[in-house]
Design goal:
By secondary structure, the chain is of the alpha+beta class. The protein is built from 2 helices and 4 strands, in the order H-E-E-H-E-E. Strands 1-2-4-3 form a 4-stranded antiparallel β-sheet. It starts with a helix and ends with a strand. The mean pLDDT is 93.
Length: 83
């Protein structure tokens, strides 16, 4: 299963538009999604979908850019539990 292709399908189906998403070239079980959006409807929902539909567990976030509002940008880091 190509997880990147599945991610693209899920984002299209759910009308979600992350800034970018990719697989780590050195750690093939690690995936990244850069999200610029609301904490609940964008960040939280994508975390939920990655877990429920792809079995990806969120390990954390990096490159967080906040402005004190519910809207922010960060890169979510996921790991595949299906090896």
């Amino acid at each position: 299963m190509d997880i990147i292709k599945k991610m693209a399908e899920i984002f299209k189906e759910e009308n979600l538009y992350p800034e970018e998403y990719w697989q780590d070239p050195n750690l093939p079980i690690v995936f990244y999604v850069t999200i610029d959006g609301d904490w609940k409807h964008d960040h939280g929902y994508i975390d939920y979908l990655m877990n429920e539909r792809l079995g990806l567990k969120k390990m954390g976030e990096r490159d967080v850019e906040e402005n004190g509002d519910d809207w922010y940008q960060s890169t979510h880091v996921y790991i595949s539990t299906q090896i």
